[in-house]
Design a protein that fits this description.
303 residues; mainly alpha; 2 domains; three-stranded antiparallel beta sheet; 10 helices; 3 strands; globular
């Protein structure tokens, strides 16, 4: 079906005639569609190709940013971008600290109460802690943190760069011999990645505090037993997963936000459009790669 969709992608849908057409050596080849299913397959193929092309553009944009930044270090030191990186870390990481902390505590506490009350008999504590690490620490923590950063910082970066492009500030930087990828994109990208790593560490710490408080003060387990179970079930792979997802989320969110912000042209009305596209695309890409990564991780563990 996808192969057929990819072939139909090369044709255009003629609304007047009700068929696909393509110019081949000056002659128009007509492909009549028998039934509505072919339209659905064509749409799937077209959507699939467009998404692949967009992913490749984002990768090329990121590689070009890194190459230009490395080349720019030869002519100027890192001082020019340190202030921008610090500002981005402050806005993305520090200002979202309490939001992440409160959400981590509430989510972990609610999860532990529901999970513990759903089981009876021997092994309640052991199963609760194991499922907590799997669901909250590995999966929900990085995902919720990424969604919060998209809502707060991803939109802000897209709006900021979109306004800079519309107001010709990007053109002014270019006219002064300053590469926008080096001076504008890279600091926000690095600051965003560092902020995501810090926020996920915050989430982990307050989630552990939440499960400890509930099990000790609500479920009346001894502190030593709870601490022992928590220490026995956490592994080094959990930290690697958190760091990998944090890095990937920061890379995706701020690459997409910068790319969409710089794609605005000359009209101020384009800024809300590129901001919406940045949010939707960031969420879709993160869900895709997080799901794919979790699938391969558990497949490798079980095999």
């Amino acid at each position: 079906m996808f192969a057929l969709g990819l072939q139909i992608y090369n044709y255009r849908w003629d609304l007047k005639e009700g068929h696909y057409t393509e110019n081949v050596r000056g002659e128009e080849a007509v492909f009549h569609c028998q039934g509505s299913w072919i339209i659905m397959v064509a749409w799937m193929g077209r959507y699939f190709v467009v998404q692949i092309e967009h992913q490749l553009r984002l990768i090329a944009f990121f590689i070009e940013t890194i190459i230009n930044s490395i080349a720019g270090l030869k002519y100027r030191g890192p001082r020019a971008i340190i202030k921008v990186i610090a500002t981005q870390v402050y806005f993305t990481g520090w200002q979202a600290f309490w939001m992440i902390a409160i959400l981590a505590f509430i989510i972990s506490a609610g999860f532990v109460i529901i999970m513990h009350n759903s089981m009876f008999g021997f092994g309640q504590l052991l199963v609760t802690v194991k499922v907590f690490y799997t669901v909250v620490v590995r999966e929900l923590g990085p995902l919720i943190t990424a969604l919060i950063v998209i809502a707060r910082s991803g939109t802000a970066v897209a709006i900021e760069l979109g306004n800079m492009k519309v107001n010709r500030e990007i053109d002014a930087l270019i006219s002064m011999g300053i590469n926008p990828l080096d001076f504008v994109v890279l600091p926000r990208l690095l600051g965003g990645i560092l902020s995501l790593i810090a926020l996920n560490i915050y989430f982990l710490l307050f989630a552990l505090i939440g499960i400890l408080v509930i099990l000790v003060n609500v479920k009346n387990y001894p502190v030593s037993i709870v601490y022992h179970q928590m220490a026995m079930n956490i592994s080094l792979s959990d930290f690697f997963i958190i760091l990998a997802k944090s890095f990937l989320a920061g890379l995706i969110i701020f690459t997409v936000a910068c790319y969409q912000g710089l794609s605005a042209q000359r009209s101020p009305t384009e800024v809300p459009v590129v901001t919406t596209q940045a949010v939707v695309q960031s969420i879709a890409i993160i869900f895709f790669w997080f799901t794919l990564g979790s699938f391969f991780y558990y497949w490798l563990v079980n095999n």
